[in-house]
Write a structure and sequence with these properties.
Layout (H helix, E strand, L loop, with lengths): L1 H7 L4 H16 L3 H13 L5 H13 L3 H14 L4 H13 L3 H12 L5 H4 L10 H6 L5 H11 L3 H14 L4 H13 L3 H14 L4 H13 L3 H14 L3 H12 L6 H15 L17 E6 L7 H10 L7 E7 L17 E4 L5 H10 L4 E4 L6 H5 L8 E4 L14 E4 L16 E4 L24 E5 L8 H13 L3 E6 L6 H12 L7 E4 L4 H5 L4 E3 L7 H9 L4 E4 L8 H9 L6 E2 L2 H12 L2 H17 L5 H20 L4
Parallel strand pairs: 1-2, 1-4, 2-3, 4-5, 5-6, 6-7, 8-9, 8-11, 9-10, 11-12, 12-13
Helix pairs in contact: 2-3, 3-4, 4-5, 5-6, 5-11, 6-7, 10-11, 10-12, 11-12, 12-13, 12-14, 13-14, 14-15, 14-16, 15-16, 16-17, 18-28, 21-26
Length: about 650
């Protein structure tokens, strides 16, 4: 059978027989990677046979690549449809990827076909079930289920693999495309996400959510004009509040967007999507009972922000306040472990519609409902458009206001919204915290190398392509020109990708400094910034984790205050940690001069190594009890103004 098939397929019998001679022992010993290498060499030499594709299918299955296995099995069957083993393998693989129709068809076909003796004697990979077992266990889109399970555990590489296989098998599977893009996005492989989403746009033309995700990925690589076009397309085709929210959120990353323009976008969002389900609930006099604080934390990033938030909320005065959380999944879930000590009550609101969510809030008799997720969870924040509690407050995740008529106040501070800059373009009233708006867990101190011993000062920037806009790069170029003894070191964010590399060289080449820029791959942000002399923040600066890691290594951080609260997250945190002087600049020009003053003073940098860490440890910004008292003072003031009425 093998020899006849080889002749039909245009191969010489000897070449195919040689392939089988080389792979037989490897297959028997389970060395399927060797089998695949031999098959690849055979194909590269011009070989073309059903048997080689069958062997490749087995190898791919052994390696966990179901999509490639299925493709090779289909190719083998297309070349020679008269072999039982090919049909059986195709039936099994179809069952394993959830295709019941094809599995049934090829399973029946196999019973009517003759066996190829040599193929039939081949040892199969461990774990490959027979047809009856595979068919009995068949389920819809099992690869998608594996992908989702891996993603929920934060296993992004594994999730990407399973989403990718599902997408290869069925390019019209919307969930696979969006999941694949999300995995790539989280791993900062934005170009790969763009390619996947563009492919999906052809398979699912006109899909608003795919266009929205593509806009987000394009924003991440700094292609703002193209991103805006994708978002315009998406919002015109969809009434999904998340799609419209993503367009507004991505606009924040554009350094040219003003606060007024950003606030107008969110205001329009709030007017369109603010849920109006309930009437005004009865307002209550506090009396002697505890007030119930409800915190919406579904969608809060599980990083330094979530850890810092949990520590603050766990320090609320429990004699005065009862604290209830509304989040995603059970509180006992690993993803919520950091929050487990923060709440007396908890509700999983992941799949709740606004009406049900509102009913739960009212059943808990919440007095002050605080949104700490913002536009990380557009569906939940939209529910605040209704009056779910007597007092409703926006805290985190709404960089330019929520635009919701039902939101009474937005928590801010003297850096994000200085009084002298009012009136502000938000629908909410501005309530200022004394210790700052951002919240984060303090990093443990790490040892850096100290100022470099040679004459070169290392300027480090953990910045993505989206951060490396012309405003940022032009300012850094001015600093490099002013300080010839410096070099700029970037942390690698997929910069070796050809498109990214060309863009990077072009951006810095516009200012004649591309030869003074290096990028390095470090296993962690901490390892990267710990080797720097000075950490440069881009415009706008939104990654508080980078600044904290630099400070924890005793590295000075240079940051522009920005032109509005939508660009001032890091500036606010630095100021409230006690680093306003020497770290914050009022303009790009002042930024250059401030950084230059650090470059020119090696003794100052050396002294800063211990001084910065000591100031961090003493800062009230990281004192959860002080932060809780700060919140409570603002809540009490707001309750007097908005929540309490005479009985």
């Amino acid at each position: 059978m093998m020899q006849d098939s080889a002749v039909r397929n245009g191969d010489t019998p000897g070449s195919l027989e040689q392939l089988h001679d080389r792979v037989a022992g490897a297959a028997d010993s389970g060395a399927w990677d060797t089998v695949q290498k031999e098959c690849d060499a055979y194909f590269a030499a011009g070989g073309h046979s059903a048997e080689a594709h069958y062997l490749s299918a087995l190898s791919a299955f052994a390696g966990g690549d179901f999509a490639a296995a299925l493709a090779h099995a289909q190719r083998a069957m297309a070349i020679d449809s008269n072999v039982r083993e090919y049909a059986e393998l195709l039936a099994v693989l179809s069952a394993l990827v959830g295709n019941i129709q094809d599995s049934s068809y090829y399973g029946k076909l196999a019973t009517a076909l003759p066996s190829a003796d040599a193929i039939g004697r081949l040892k199969l990979p461990d774990g490959l079930p027979d047809f009856s077992m595979a068919y009995l266990r068949i389920e819809r889109r099992p690869l998608l289920r594996r992908a989702v399970a891996a993603m929920e555990l934060g296993q992004w590489t594994e999730a990407e693999n399973w989403f990718g296989q599902q997408f290869d098998i069925d390019p019209t599977c919307r969930e696979a495309c969006l999941g694949l893009a999300q995995c790539m996005y989280v791993q900062r492989k934005h170009r790969a996400a763009i390619d996947a989403l563009r492919a999906a746009a052809h398979a699912l033309p006109g899909d608003a959510l795919i266009a929205s995700n593509l806009g987000a990925a394009l924003t991440a690589v700094g292609e703002f004009a193209e991103a805006r076009a994708c978002h315009r397309f998406a919002v015109a085709a969809s009434d999904d509040p998340a799609v419209h929210a993503q367009a507004a959120i991505d606009g924040i990353h554009d350094p040219e967007q003003t606060l007024v323009a950003a606030a107008a976008q969110f205001r329009a969002w709030g007017e369109r999507f603010g849920t109006e389900v309930f009437g005004v609930p009865p307002q209550r006099v506090r009396g002697t009972r505890r007030l119930t604080l409800g915190y919406v934390v579904g969608g809060v990033p599980r990083n330094l922000t979530a850890a810092g938030l949990a520590r603050v909320l766990s320090r609320h005065d429990r004699e005065r306040y009862r604290v209830v959380g509304f989040g995603f999944g059970p509180l006992s879930a690993p993803s919520n472990m950091v929050l487990q000590k923060a709440f007396e009550g908890w509700h999983d609101v992941r799949d709740m519609d606004p009406l049900t969510f509102g009913s739960v809030v009212r059943a808990e008799d919440v007095d002050i409902l605080v949104d700490a997720s913002g536009f990380n969870s557009p569906r939940l924040i939209a529910a605040f458009g209704a009056r779910l509690a007597p007092l409703q407050v926006s805290w985190l995740g709404a960089p330019a206001g929520t635009g919701l008529a039902g939101m009474d106040a937005i928590l801010s501070d003297s850096v994000m919204d200085p009084e002298e800059e009012g009136p502000f373009p938000y629908r909410e009233n501005v309530a200022r915290l004394a210790l700052g708006t951002p919240v984060a867990e303090r990093e443990a101190p790490v040892a850096g190398h100290g100022p470099m011993t040679d004459e070169t000062v290392s300027l480090a920037a953990d910045a993505t392509l989206g951060d490396l806009n012309p405003t940022t790069v032009g300012t850094w170029a001015r600093l490099l020109h002013a300080c010839p003894n410096t070099k700029l070191v970037l942390r690698d964010h997929d910069f070796r990708n050809d498109d990214n590399s060309r863009r990077l060289i072009g951006l810095f080449g516009d200012f004649g400094v591309s030869h003074r820029v290096d990028f390095v791959s470090d296993s962690s942000n901490t390892a990267f910034v710990g080797q720097a002399d000075i950490c440069l923040m881009p415009f706008p600066a939104s990654r508080l984790d980078v600044a904290l890691e630099a400070l924890s290594a005793g590295v000075p951080v240079i940051c522009w205050r920005g032109l509005g609260r939508h660009h001032r997250l890091v500036a606010s945190a630095l100021a409230h940690m006690g680093f306003a002087d020497g770290f914050l600049a009022a303009s790009p020009e002042a930024y250059v001069e401030l950084a230059r003053s650090w470059v020119d003073d090696a003794d100052r940098r050396r002294a800063a190594r211990n001084d910065i860490v000591g100031r961090l440890e003493a800062s009230a910004f990281f004192d959860p009890s002080a932060r809780a008292r700060d919140l409570e003072a603002v809540y009490d003031e707001l309750w007097q103004r908005f929540g309490e009425v005479a009985g």
